[in-house]
């Protein structure tokens, strides 16, 4: 008899028959299992049948996935994939409209299954799909089912996208470019083109030529959120597949069409909540746009370039206009050179006799020069005030404009991750980025004035330069973490976060750290931990009982389908099921699928160098999951709380320790609050590391009162 792990107890259904309850031996060939099931129902030709999950995605059971069957699974005896593929292959060629429509609808559903897809494609089924699209006779529901089936079949990567004919591609493009087409067909067409673009440069060129940016912008302006999303997905796919020069041209064209202002007004600030996919696409668009600065950031100044030298000289001429207007014959060459060096020193260049040397370091390279020139030309009053104000100070108290600008540019590049590749999952974009055309330069203009302000508040000297820039970095990062919606709001908040506020924040954080490191306090922390950890466990289970909305994740791309999962009040069963977009908290009775606690995997989290993901695979072979980047953007990732809460909750159900980052954060917060309450009476009293010594016992105990005498 096989060991228990190779036996699962399941139910098998068939229409019009009493279900069978069997013990499935996983070591027994699937063909033999089917023979036994068919014999029990007196069905001949067992090879024409197959098992599939009765609920959910209804995946076919094969030798490769049978190990995923759990105790309590409900399977259904149905037509085998090869028989079903043959039937639908014939059905989609039928002259009867109803038969053809039903066959295409069924095909769109079954094509999600890899086993069926392989059988259908092996019959040259895709050729029939191509013909239906290329002939263009079918429209409406029938065409939508056809495009859906095509999308699902191509998802399995059995056939290369490069095999598509020019006629087929142009037909798909026509659905995107036409106005009088059903929105569902346009969504599917945009999705097909999005998947097509990254596969080859030839297909990228075809789509880029046929679907203009103007057409995509038109789709972005519709009120249909899904159509808007698919248009954005194709736009991002085109940008990521383009060469650097093509990407720069595309972004410049989009800037001329005011795409940022439109996104800021109609997508970010729309009445509909921003979905995860759209947030990711906005992050990518922001990253692609900022990375256009990378070329200048990595380019050192060429002292022989007349254009670059003119930009450098324009800084001096703008700041010291009256002095620069002296006629050429008034001073000798040597006198003029000395005057220029003096002016460049006032501008804050370290190498005042040859200021180009200051800009040889890359990064930030010429990007720093671009920022300085932009500041001088677009805010000339602020620029002149910065230079003249510091020119009137003592030499050691001058805030060096050029040196500060170069370092500030480098800091902003690091904070905004310029030059780094886009994350595949990040969603951390800055809303204010889409409210301004020249975002990076405008941000620089605000921050360089912040440098001067902070310099004065710190009463800094040249020796304090690094210290000042460190404070400025902290001011910027703390303000950006608040996600201001506009540059004006950023300017208000960052200026309010002055040096004294930074010192208060640092002192608070330092005092908090110091008071929690005393030996008696550490001992009290350890004593309080078990009680607070139990509180966190109960909160995690409560969160699982409330439930969460998940997205179905495929191996190649994001999916629009949503699932909802919640834990039963008795903490024994996970209830889950499909839900429509916009449903927030469906009742537990509406979630038809169940997964007993005993079926939970021992370890539900996985990791790689790029990301870490958490997920569960259902009895139907589908996976609902949360995926996060490993570094950088992960800390601000909007899915991080759910990732931690569910990982902790499942570990509690399995009797394991909670290991997420959120657990430690919550424990620290609760410990801090509890410790402050316990130590409230000891405020401003230093706590010794060691307890006071116990005094020696007295020489006698005669001071003890004798109560017996009092009673007499």
UniProtKB/TrEMBL annotation:
<dbReference type="Pfam" id="PF04727">
    <property type="entry name" value="ELMO_CED12"/>
</dbReference>
<dbReference type="InterPro" id="IPR050868">
    <property type="entry name" value="ELMO_domain-containing"/>
</dbReference>
<comment type="function">
    <text>Involved in cytoskeletal rearrangements required for phagocytosis of apoptotic cells and cell motility. Acts in association with DOCK1 and CRK. Was initially proposed to be required in complex with DOCK1 to activate Rac Rho small GTPases. May enhance the guanine nucleotide exchange factor (GEF) activity of DOCK1.</text>
</comment>
<dbReference type="InterPro" id="IPR006816">
    <property type="entry name" value="ELMO_dom"/>
</dbReference>
<dbReference type="Pfam" id="PF11841">
    <property type="entry name" value="ELMO_ARM"/>
</dbReference>
<dbReference type="InterPro" id="IPR011989">
    <property type="entry name" value="ARM-like"/>
</dbReference>
<dbReference type="GO" id="GO:0006909">
    <property type="term" value="P:phagocytosis"/>
</dbReference>
<dbReference type="GO" id="GO:0006915">
    <property type="term" value="P:apoptotic process"/>
</dbReference>
<dbReference type="InterPro" id="IPR024574">
    <property type="entry name" value="ELMO_ARM"/>
</dbReference>
<protein>
    <submittedName>
        <fullName>ELMO3 protein</fullName>
    </submittedName>
</protein>
<dbReference type="GO" id="GO:0017124">
    <property type="term" value="F:SH3 domain binding"/>
</dbReference>
<keyword id="KW-0581">Phagocytosis</keyword>
<keyword id="KW-0729">SH3-binding</keyword>
<dbReference type="InterPro" id="IPR011993">
    <property type="entry name" value="PH-like_dom_sf"/>
</dbReference>
<feature type="domain" description="ELMO">
    <location>
        <begin position="307"/>
        <end position="480"/>
    </location>
</feature>
<dbReference type="InterPro" id="IPR016024">
    <property type="entry name" value="ARM-type_fold"/>
</dbReference>
<dbReference type="InterPro" id="IPR001849">
    <property type="entry name" value="PH_domain"/>
</dbReference>
<keyword id="KW-0053">Apoptosis</keyword>
<dbReference type="GO" id="GO:0048870">
    <property type="term" value="P:cell motility"/>
</dbReference>
<dbReference type="Pfam" id="PF16457">
    <property type="entry name" value="PH_12"/>
</dbReference>
<dbReference type="GO" id="GO:0007015">
    <property type="term" value="P:actin filament organization"/>
</dbReference>
